[in-house]
Amino acid sequence: MKKNWTKFLVVALSVMMVFAMTACGGGGGEAAPADGGEAAAQVLKIGSSGPLTGGASIYGTAVKQGAEIAVAEINEADPSFQVEFKMEDDEADGEKAVNAYNKLKDWGVQVIMGTVTTGSCIAVSAEAFEDRIFELTPSASSADVTAGKDNVFQVCFTDPNQGIKAADYISENFAGKKVGVIYNNSDPYSTGIFNAFKAEMEAKGGEIVAAETYPDDTNADYSAQLTNCKSAGAEVVLLPIYYTPASVILKQAKDMNYAPVFFGVDGMDGILDMEGFDTTLAEGVMLMTPFNPWSTDENVASFVEKYQAAYNELPNQFAADGYDGVYAIYNAFKAAGLSADQENAEICDAMIGQFTGGFTYDGLTGSGMTWNDKGEVNKTPVVCAIEGGIYVDK
Amino acid sequence: MIFLSNLINGLSLGSVYAIIALGYSMVYGISKMLNFAHGDVIMVGAYISFCGTAYLGLPAWLALILAIVVCTALGMVIEGLAYRPLRGTGSLAVLITAIGVSYFLQNAALIIWGSAPKVFSSLFEGFGSSISLFDGELTVTWEAIFTLIAAILVMIGMTLFTSRTKAGKAMRAVSEDNGAAQLMGINVNTTISMTFAIGSALAAVAGVLLCSSYPALMPTTGAMPGIKAFTAAVFGGIGSIPGAMLGGILIGVIEILGRAYISSELSDAIVFGVLIIVLLVKPTGLLGKKMTEKV
Amino acid sequence: MKTRLRLSKLPPYTKNAAISYGLVTAAFVIVSLLKAAGMISSSLQGQLVPICCYIIMAISLNLVVGISGELSLGHAGFMSAGAFTGIVISGLLETSGLPEVGRLIFAVIGGAIVAGIFGFLIGIPVLRLRGDYLAIVTLAFGEIIKNFMNIIYAGKDSTGFHLKTNPELGLEATGRMLLNGPMGATQVQRISTFTAGFILVLITLFVVQNIMNSKQGRAIMACRDNRIAAESIGLNVMKYKLMAFVVSATLAGMGGALFGLNYSTLLPVKFNFNTSVLILVFVVLGGVGNIWGGIIAATILTILPEAFRQFADYRMLTYAIVLILVMIGTYNPAIRARLGMLRDKIFPSNKEDPKAKKPRWRKSGKGVA
User: Fold this and answer.
1) Nearest to residue C321, comparing CAs of B150, B100, A373?
2) A202/B78 Cα distance (integer angstroms)
3) Residue B136's pLDDT is what?
4) Is the model's pLDDT at A10 over the cut of 60?
5) How far apart are CA A106 and CA A123, in angstroms?
6) 3-state helix, strand, coil in chain C (%, to 5)
7) Looking at residue B259, what DSSP letter applies?
8) Which C-chain residues 311-330 have CB contacts (< 8 A) with chain B?
9) List of domains in chain A
10) What average pLDDT does range C157-170 have in this prediction?
C-alpha cells in the first residue's frame, strides 16, 4: 500500500516537472518579442556573466558596476539608441556560466560583454562561437579564451603576454638580481602568467631562485613560501596573483623583516582600496596595471567621480575593463552602421569585421586599443610603483 | 634557523586550528553531528570584531568580547532553529542542514558586508609587529605567541570546565549517553544548547586570532580553515579535548613544514595523506576512545 | 511458457525495475519531443546533460550511502577522475577519424575504468574505518585527487602521448595540451548529448537495481544493517562493502566523463568538496536508499538555483533557506506525522498495514553501544 503512495508521488512529481519545463519554455519564448515591441527607440541587449556571489564575487561586481556606468552614459546621451545591460551570476564556475549564458539567450541577448573569469569564459565562448553571438570579454585573460574562435575578443592583456612583459621589465630594470615568485597553483590566471614568465626569464638569462605556490584558499599562510624566498636570497619577488592574498603576503613579509621589491601584475590593482588596509605596507610595490584611478586623464577622472558617487568606492581595473567593454562594443556597433533589430549572426560578423579591420578605441585602460585577428588586444602596459598610497607611473 | 621559524609559523597556524577543532569536537561529542557551519561562525566572529573596531571605534578587546557575545547567540539560534527540529533523525539529515546553514551564513555575509575583502587589523597591533631574535635571523610575531598562549589557555579552561563544573559534567554525561543523562535529571536541550554556545564563542575567538595573523577577511574566509580544523579534530580523536589540541597543532605544523620542505603544490595532499595513514593505524584518531561493538 | 508478459505477475523487484525504466524513458521521450517542438528554453536545454550527470552521480552515491550505509564526502573525486580521463581519451581519438559517438563511448568506458581503479585503491584503506572517520577519509581523498589534478600536465603530438607533473612537456609545434594543470582541460570538443546522458542513466539504474536485488546486494544490505550479524553468518563484510564502493566509483567516473565532455573547458577545482556535498544533498534530500527520490532531487536541485535567478543577489541565500526548510520539513518527526495525517485524510483508503511496515533504512549507529 505504501508503495502505491510513493509511486503516485513519483508520477505526480514527474508530471509536474514536465509542466514546469514547458511553462519555462513557453515563458521564455514569449517574453522576447514583447520587450522589443514596446520600446520605440532601438534597444541593444548586452549580456554578461560573472561571479556575483562566492569567493571571486569582487571581480564580477566591479565589472558589473563599471559597465552600468557606461550604459547609463550611453542611454543618457542618445535617447533613440538604448542599451539594455543584464549581468547574471556564474560563481566563476564553467557549468554555471553556461547556464547563465543560456538564460541570457532566453532573454534575447545580442552581444556578450563577458565573462569575467577565465574558466567560465572559455566555456561560454565555445557556446557563443557556435551560436554566432559576438563576445568581448572585459577580464578573462587566458589565451584559450580566444583560441580558435573568431568572434571572441579581449579588453585585457592575455596571461602569457603579462608574464612576458613582466619578465622583460624585470630583466631590464633589475638585471642580475635574484628573483622569487609566489603564485597560486590552482588558479589558471596565476599559473598562466608564471609559466610564461619563467620561460621568458630563462630565455633572457634571468635567475629564478624560488618558485613557491599556494593552494586556493583565502587566509592561507604564506610564511613558508616567504621564508623560502628569503633564504634563497630573492631580491625581487613576483606576485602574479590577486590583491587579497597579496595583502596577507605583504603583512607577513613585513613581520619577518623581509623587504624585497614586490612586483605585481594587474591582479594587484585594488590593494590600496581594501577596507582597513595599511597602505604603508604596499609602499614601493611595483605593479603592471592598465588602469590608474589617480590618473589626471579627463575620462578617467570623470569615470572615477561617477563611480565613487554611485558605489562609494574607488573603481579598480575590473570596473574600468567593464566600462571599456561596453563602450568598445557600442562604438564598434555604431561604426559598423548596425541596427539593433538585426540578427545576431549579422551583428556578429559585422562586429568581427570592425574589430579586425582597424577599429580603434580610446578607453580607460589604454588609448589607441586595437585588436588582432586572434582576438588579443594591443595596448601598452604601464608599470607603476605605489608611492604615498597612489600609483606613480614608472 | 629557517626550520625553527617554519616550526613557529606552524605552531601558530596549528593553534588556530586547535581552537576551531575544539569547538568542532565538543559539538560533535554531544550531538554526534558534523557541524559544517562551524567554519562560517568563525567568519561571522571576525566580521563582527572588524565592525566593532572599524565602524564603532571600539578598542580591540571590547570588539573581541562583542564578537564572542554575537557568535554565542548565533550558535544558540542556529542550534535551536535548524538542528533541534532534526534531533534524533540520524546524522545525515543534520549534516545537510548544517551545510545549508553554512551556505546561508556565507551568502548573508556577502549581502551584509559585500564582496570586497576587508583587511583585519590585528588584535595585538599595540605590541608592534614582531620580535627579532638572533640578529634578525629569526622573527616571531606577537600574533604567533598570543595565539599559542590562547590555545593553551582555552584547552586548560575547557578541561577544567568539563571535569570540575556541574554544567561541564552534564555535558559529558549527555555526550556519553543522551537517554541516561535525561533520566538522571539533566536537561538535555539546555546542555546541547550550551555546548553550541561555548563552541561558537570559541569560534569567535578563533576567528579573531585567525584574521589577526592572516588579515584578509571575506565571506568565504571560514570555509577552508573549517575543513582543516575538522580534519584536525578527527586526527586527534573527535570528542576529545586534548585530542583536538594535539590534532590542530600537528595539522598546522605538518602543513607548514610540508609546504616548506616537500612541495608547496601538494601541501594539502600531504596533510590529508598523513591523516589517512594515522587513521589506518589508529582508526579513532590519536587520542580517540576505542569503540567496542556489542551485539 | 507464457508468451504475454504481464506486469502484475512479475516478481515485485522486476516490476519496480520495469517501471523505473519506463518512467525514465517516458521522461526522456517527453523532453525530447518538447525540445524538438522548441518548447524548452535554452536555459533548460543547456541543463539537460548536467541533469543526467547529476542523476548518475546521485544514483551511484546512493549505492554507497544508502545501500552500503557508509557516508562518503569525496564522490566528486571519482567524477573528476572520470571526467579528465574521458577528456584525454576523447582528445587522443580526435584525429583517429572515429565518429563522435564512438569517441564518447570510449571516453565513458575509459573514465569509468579509471575511476573504478581509483575506487578500488581508495576503498581498501577507507573501508577499514567506520562511520564519521570513514567520511573524513573520503573527504581527504577527494581533496587529494583535486590537489594532484592541479599538477598533472598531459599533451599529445605526433610522437605520442606525454604526461608530466610540470608544464614542460616538450610538445611539437603541432601538438596539443590535453590537461594543463590548474588550467584544466581547454578546447574540449563537446560530444556529450542528451541521448547519451539518457542511456547512461538507464545503464546506471540497471546496474544499481540489479545489485540491490542480487545475492550480493542483499549481502551488502545485511552488512549495513548489522555488521556483526553479517560477519557471524560468514559474510565477508569488507568484500561486499568494497564491491559497492568500486561499482559506485565506476558509475561516478562514467557520469564524470559525460560531464567533462559537455563543456569546452573543465577546471580541477570544479570537483571540490562543495560538489561532493551537492551530490550528497541530492541523495539525502531524495531519501537515503531511495533511488527515485535521488533522481527527482537531482533534477529539481539542478534546476532550482537557475529558477531563482530572478532573486538576483538573494539567489543563493534563498537556496540555502529552502534547503534548510526542506530538510526540516522532510525529516522532522512532528511535521512528518502531521503530513502523514494529512495524507490519510485525503486518501483514506491508503491505510498502512501495520504488519507490512518495515524499516527501510536503519541508522548505522544503532548497533553500536
Assistant:
1) B100
2) 55
3) 66
4) no
5) 18
6) 75, 5, 25
7) I
8) 313-314, 316-317, 319-321, 323-324, 327-328, 330
9) 39-156+300-380 (3.40.50.2300), 160-289 (3.40.50.2300)
10) 80
CA distance C60 to A290: 49
CB-based contact C177:C169 (threshold 8 Å): yes
The mean predicted confidence, pLDDT, of chain A is: 84
Name which of C23, C186, C303 is nearest A10 (Cβ-Cβ): C23
Would you say the ipTM is above 0.90?
no
- Give me the sign of the Cα torsion angle C197, C202, C207, C211: positive
For residue C268, what pLDDT band results from cuts at 50, 70 and 90? confident
Here the cell at position C105 is 563511448
Encode burial over B13-50: b for 16+ CB neighbours within 10 A, e otherwise. bbbbbbbbbbbbbbbbbbbbbbbbbbbbbbbbbbbbbb
Residue A72 has pLDDT above 90, yes or no: yes
| CATH number of the B2-120+138-281 domain | 1.10.3470
Task: Answer whether 0.80 is exceeded by the pTM.
Answer: yes
Highest mean pLDDT among A241-245, C310-314, C353-357: A241-245
Cell of A373: 585577428
Residue B214: band (very low, low, confident or very high) from pLDDT cuts 50, 70, 90: confident
The C-alpha atoms of residue A199 and residue A187 are separated, in whole angstroms, by: 18
Distance CA B181, CA C123 (A): 38
Residue that is written with C-alpha cell 536555459 in the block: C43
Given CATH 1.25.40, say whether it is the number of domain C10-35+47-272. Answer: no
Residues linked to residue C153 through DSSP beta bridges, in sequence order? C164, C180
Which residue type, as a one-letter code, is found at position C264? S
Q: Report the alpha-carbon distance of residue C191 to residue C171 in Å, rounded.
A: 25
CB neighbours (10 Å) of residue C361?
Answer: 18
**pLDDT at C319 > cutoff 90:** no
- Per-residue confidence band for A237, with pLDDT thresholds at 50, 70 and 90: very high
Chain C residues whose CB is inside 8 A of the B285 CB are: 133
Confidence of residue C365 (pLDDT cuts 50, 70, 90): very low
The amino acid present at A142, given as its one-letter code, is: S
Return d(Cα B39, Cα A219) in angstroms, integer. 13
- Write b or e for each residue in B108-141: b if 16 or more Cβ atoms lie within 10 A of its Cβ, otherwise e: bbbeebbbbbbbbbbbbeeeebbeeeeeeebbbb
**Confidence grade of residue A21 (pLDDT, cut at 50, 70, 90):** very low
Between CA A357 and CA A347 the distance in angstroms is: 15
Provide the shortest C-alpha distance from residue C216 to chain B (in Å). 23
Subunit contact A223:B5, Cβ cutoff 8 A: yes
Q: Which residue of B240, B259, B272 to mutate against C (max C Cβ within 10 Å)?
A: B272
Kindly indicate the confidence band of residue A192, based on its pLDDT and cuts at 50, 70 and 90. confident
Angle ∠(B255,B259,B261) on CA atoms, nearest 5 = 120
In 3D space, the residue among C115, C129, C139, C159 whose CA is nearest the CA of residue C279 turns out to be C139
- With CB atoms and an 8 Å threshold, state whether C46 touches A52: no
Name B172's Cβ contacts closer than 8 Å, sequence gap at least 6: B162
The residue count for chain C: 369
At residue A20, the pLDDT reads 47
Other CB atoms within 10 A of residue C364 CB: 20
Domain boundaries of chain C, sorted by first residue: 10-35+47-272
State the Cα–Cα distance between residues B219 and A203, nearest whole angstrom: 42
Question: Which among B115, B139, B214 has the least Cβ separation from residue A248?
Answer: B214
Q: What is the residue-averaged pLDDT of chain C? A: 84
CB-side neighbour CA atoms (13 Å) of A88? 28
The set of cell numbers assigned to C149 is 589534478
Residue C9: band (very low, low, confident or very high) from pLDDT cuts 50, 70, 90:
low
Which one, of A36, A288, A24, lies nearest residue A157 by Cα?
Answer: A288
Pick the closest to residue B25 from C232, A67, C132, A368 (CA basis). C132
